[in-house]
Amino acid sequence: TSASEEAEPGTHGALTRAGGVRGEAEGAPDSEQLAEIGLRFEVDGEIATITLDRPERRNAQTFATWSALAQIGTTLPEQVRVVVVRGEGPSFSAGIDVRLFTPEGVSGQGSFASAAALDGGTIDQRIREFQEGFLWLRRPDIVSIAAVHGHAIGAGFQLALACDLRVIADDTKFCMKEPALGLVPDLTGTKPLVDLVGLSRAVEICLSARVVEAGEALRLGLAERVVPGDELQAATKELATSLLATDRDAAAATKRLLQGASGRTLEEQAAAERAEQRARIKALFGGVRQA
Ligand code: CAA
Fold first, then answer.
1. Predicted TM-score (pTM) of this structure
2. How far is the CA of 62 from the centre of ligand 1 (A)?
3. Which among 32, 66, 140, 275 is most buried, taking Cβ atoms within 10 Å?
4. What is the pLDDT of residues 73-132, one digit of tens each?
């Protein structure tokens, strides 16, 4: 039996079946299984925190990481309004687990070589499932914040880009390394990167696979705020708390409007504002007796 055929608890079949953690299709993910994958998930009132927790491998991500992230999204408790994504140890995330590039792969999860043996439609479906782990972070009913420090490489950079906001430590190093390894960034990072820095700069960053350090990241709009490393946690908490100041439904409606703005004309956007406001007025004042 090769290493790639031996199942690790909680990770078996991550490459070859639908997303989700074994035995936890319903309800919140099991914390022990998340720990085996290298994740922690904690909820404190309206704020949830996802921690990449495999510091001994610089929070390298596997296929199971993305399936578990997707499951956290589908089972997110209803009261949660802000989701923080952070990393334990010296780095936010060193990207994909490079063992997946070896023929042996990661135990229980196969490898790129075993993925290459699948038909095109199946590969497409697997990637779609992995992308679900990133896409839900843009949902209008939540605001997601990446709290980034140290290296955020490849899938790590894309996870930071999948969030609505980024607070970063002054030692942050972003790098879109995929093209240097013969692959493309496919974990939903290309659109937010272009939206944030523009096409020319995105081409330059991705095709050189160079490091973007914290100061430049702030200038380019890749981060909302840069803070000293020992202030990252407090700055993230402060931002998260500030986002709870607004009405929950108005916040979701406003995020929907803002998200749709770049794809609409001014007239279309004005119409979208009217539609959202109609719904707000009905919801807020519908039952109030007129004077
Ligand atoms: N996968 C698996 N293990 C990793 C890893 C990764 N991506 N990154 C680091 N590790 C492991 C190292 O092998 C090392 O393990 P040992 O202690 O057993 O030797 C341990 O983590 C610590 O690593 P370093 O000693 O290298 O730590 P450092 O702080 O000096 O350097 C680093 C950190 C700059 C991130 C460096 O580890 C590095 O360059 N890692 C590889 C980054 C990489 O190429 N990632 C892939 C990007 S592409 C992608 O993500 C998406 C895609 O689709 C291809």
1. 0.92
2. 12
3. 66
4. 999 999 999 999 999 999 999 999 999 999 999 998 899 999 999 999 999 999 999 999
Q: Give ipTM to 2 decimals.
A: 0.98
Atom number, ligand 1, closest to the C-alpha of residue 173? 34
How far apart are the C-alpha atoms of 52 and 43, rounded to whole Å?
A: 15
pLDDT at 28: 73
Our mutation pick for probing the ligand 1 site, out of 58, 91, 106, 126, counting the most ligand atoms within 8 A of Cβ, is 58
Burial code (b: 16+ CB inside 10 Å, e: under 16) for 118-155 equals: eeeeeeeebeebbbbbbebbbbeebbbbbbbbbbbbbb
Q: Ligand 1 centroid to 253 CA: how many Å? A: 40
Q: What is the pLDDT of residues 132-185, one digit of tens each?
A: 999 999 999 999 999 999 999 999 999 999 999 999 999 999 999 999 999 999
Q: Whose CA is nearest to atom 8 of ligand 1?
A: 94
